[in-house]
């Protein structure tokens, strides 16, 4: 073979003496954001890049390296990948994406999303939020929400990406509300663990108008972040709110409805558990004697468990619990907050205390201990957690109103409307002692359905009505279902169908940002509010999205997809089902040709 006579010319160094870098043409295209199409973005690569930065922020915050995590936060906020993910979250994944701010914009086209990404950076010029009133379940009161404009939503999502890993490394272990990877079931399980061996006094408290009264200057001082982030958050706090056509100033409080609002509220309330532990540290048998610790005995600190602005303090000494109440009241004054007397209650888990019945309600659950013989329990009591009476009534009233609203509707419409309500409520309470409650609700629902069926056919006999609307399925003669046989048959779910499965509390101070993706993706399938179908699919997919091949994270919005669409003959069985991210589901739907418009 002849050698080529072409000489390779070495690249010349520039004026600074450095050799020019070889630029990957793909990276060159990515740098020019206007040349990228939204549907062609490599989301998997972007998510990995952002998560690596968040993990580094988390680890730097854990070791107290302020200089490192602030530098990383600055890098993340300038990252094109983080900006794209922030815009995708508020325009595609967020459940409230169709709610407009004061500018009236509800959704963005793919081209508009890329334009938003290009101009997304901290800016003190913000628009006021739009006031929306939503009803509180079970009451006549309404809760105010502040809906920001789309640009501010995306920017809030970007800042939250930078701030959340820093604070997840600092938050107290028994704080469970509005945190990644934690839920109200973790808080209930923490209470169960605290009292299962010993009955205790309980301070069940609520902070009065927490979100509306947080002091802005105290919050910004506690935030202790970079000047850029501080100026931006201050601008959002002071932006004002539009109620109708009138603008109201916001001199205090954080607007409920913003992407970053729950994080700011958690930061404002951070430190309560540490303050209690500092006032009442653990003491061994040999340590000095105090008014609350007798020498020769072991003293355990009071248990402080918080979910957003609701919290409980548990301890076997009533004097300690009363002193904790005073300490918390003093601590809250620094944030211009106070306890709500109407919702603050001091009681005991087992015995009556000052005419107060034993037990307490927390997050929709009733937690109480009952005396039993030594044969049944070594402690002489059992801890029973059940759905609270108030939540049972709210749920039944909702079921009854749906049945009343469908008096003239066909049976299939009524079943399709009731099933999600029954499934969601039953799954929420499926981790506690709920079987008796489920049976009671099924009986009440049967009576309501019987009246519904009789109203539709007043001249028919009871036997004729029963045969028309109740069928025999699997040995059960009283299933509210249609007469169609096979997979076309629609049947009403009963509450008792939901199995009771004990919940496993999240590990101590574990966080989704610690990098243990296998642990967090496996926990998603075990969540009580995940349906059986979703749990089975998560297990078979090993916690990964089959479209983008990324592990599911706690904050992801998931949807069940038919691999072969029903319109093309696909069946509704596990072989034809998969779980995808919401944005991945949108992309696949477009690829299948099921929709033409953008999502």
In words, what does this structure look like?
There is one protein chain. The chain is of the alpha+beta class and 599 residues long. The protein has helices at residues 25-31, 43-62, 66-78, 80-93, 110-118, 150-168, 184-195, 210-213, 216-223, 227-237, 261-269, 272-279, 318-333, 389-405, 411-428, 435-456, 462-469, 517-525, 532-540, 582-592, and strands at residues 129-135, 142-147, 201-206, 241-243, 246-248, 303-307, 310-315, 345-348, 360-362, 365-371, 381-387, 470-473, 476-480, 558-562, 577-581. Strand 1 (129-135) and strand 2 form a beta hairpin. The radius of gyration is 28 Å and the shape is globular. The model is unreliable at 1-8, 15-19, 21-34 and 595-599 (pLDDT under 50).
Helix and strand layout, with pairings?
Blueprint: H1 25-31, H2 43-62, H3 66-78, H4 80-93, H5 110-118, E1 129-135, E2 142-147, H6 150-168, H7 184-195, E3 201-206, H8 210-213, H9 216-223, H10 227-237, E4 241-243, E5 246-248, H11 261-269, H12 272-279, E6 303-307, E7 310-315, H13 318-333, E8 345-348, E9 360-362, E10 365-371, E11 381-387, H14 389-405, H15 411-428, H16 435-456, H17 462-469, E12 470-473, E13 476-480, H18 517-525, H19 532-540, E14 558-562, E15 577-581, H20 582-592
Parallel strand pairs: 1-4
Antiparallel strand pairs: 1-2, 3-7, 3-8, 4-5, 6-7, 9-10, 10-11, 12-13, 14-15
Helix pairs in contact: 2-3, 2-4, 2-6, 3-6, 4-5, 4-6, 12-13, 14-15, 14-16, 18-19
């Amino acid at each position: 073979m002849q050698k080529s006579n072409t000489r390779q010319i070495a690249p010349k160094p520039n004026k600074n003496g450095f050799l020019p870098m070889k630029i990957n043409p793909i990276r060159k295209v990515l740098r020019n954001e206007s040349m990228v199409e939204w549907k062609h973005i490599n989301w998997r690569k972007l998510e990995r890049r952002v998560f690596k930065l968040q993990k580094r922020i988390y680890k730097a915050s854990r070791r107290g390296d302020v200089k490192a995590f602030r530098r990383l936060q600055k890098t993340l906020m300038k990252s094109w990948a983080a900006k794209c993910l922030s815009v995708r979250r508020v325009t595609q994944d967020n459940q409230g994406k169709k709610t407009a701010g004061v500018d009236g914009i509800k959704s963005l086209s793919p081209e508009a999303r890329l334009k938003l990404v290009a101009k997304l950076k901290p800016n003190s010029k913000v628009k006021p939020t739009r006031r929306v009133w939503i009803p509180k379940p079970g009451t006549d009161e309404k809760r105010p929400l502040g809906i920001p404009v789309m640009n501010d939503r995306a920017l809030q999502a970007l800042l939250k990406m930078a701030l959340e890993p820093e604070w997840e490394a600092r938050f107290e272990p028994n704080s469970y509300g509005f945190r990644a990877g934690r839920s109200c079931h973790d808080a209930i399980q923490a209470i169960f663990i605290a009292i299962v061996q010993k009955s205790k006094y309980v301070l069940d408290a609520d902070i009065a108008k927490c979100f509306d009264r947080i002091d802005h200057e105290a919050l910004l001082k506690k935030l202790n972040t970079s000047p850029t982030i501080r100026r931006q958050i201050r601008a959002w706090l002071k932006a004002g709110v539009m109620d109708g056509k009138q603008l109201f100033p916001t001199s205090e409080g954080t607007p409920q409805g913003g992407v970053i609002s729950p994080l700011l509220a958690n930061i404002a309330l951070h430190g309560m558990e540490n303050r209690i532990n500092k006032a009442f540290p653990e003491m061994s048998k040999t340590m000095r004697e105090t008014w609350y610790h007798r020498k020769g005995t072991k003293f355990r600190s009071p248990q402080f468990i918080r979910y957003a602005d609701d919290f409980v303090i548990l301890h076997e000494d009533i004097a300690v619990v009363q002193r904790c109440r005073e300490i918390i009241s003093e601590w809250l004054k620094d944030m211009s907050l106070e306890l709500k007397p109407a919702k603050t209650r001091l009681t005991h888990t087992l015995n009556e205390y000052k005419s107060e019945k034993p037990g307490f309600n927390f997050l929709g659950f009733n937690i109480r201990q009952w005396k039993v013989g030594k044969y049944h329990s070594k402690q002489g009591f059992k801890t029973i957690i059940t759905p609270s009476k108030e939540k049972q009534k709210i749920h039944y009233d909702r079921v009854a109103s749906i049945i009343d609203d469908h008096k003239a509707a066909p049976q299939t419409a009524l079943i399709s409307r009731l099933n999600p309500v029954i499934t969601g409520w039953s799954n929420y309470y499926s981790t506690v002692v709920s079987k008796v409650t489920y049976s009671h609700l099924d009986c009440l629902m049967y009576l309501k359905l019987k009246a519904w069926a009789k109203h539709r056919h007043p001249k028919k006999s009871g036997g004729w009505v029963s045969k028309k609307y109740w069928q025999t399925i699997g040995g059960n003669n009283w299933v509210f279902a249609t007469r169609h046989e096979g997979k076309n048959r629609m049947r009403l779910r009963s509450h008792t169908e939901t199995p009771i499965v004990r919940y496993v509390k999240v590990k101590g101070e574990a966080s989704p940002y610690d990098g243990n993706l296998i642990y967090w993706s496996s926990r998603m399938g075990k969540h009580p509010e995940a349906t059986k179908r979703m749990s089975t699919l998560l297990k078979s997919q090993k916690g990964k999205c089959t479209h983008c091949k990324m592990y599911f994270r706690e904050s992801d919005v998931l949807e069940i997809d038919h691999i072969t669409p029903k319109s093309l003959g696909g069946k509704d069985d596990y072989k034809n089902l998969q779980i995808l991210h919401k944005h991945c589901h949108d992309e696949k739907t477009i690829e299948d040709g099921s929709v033409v418009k953008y999502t």
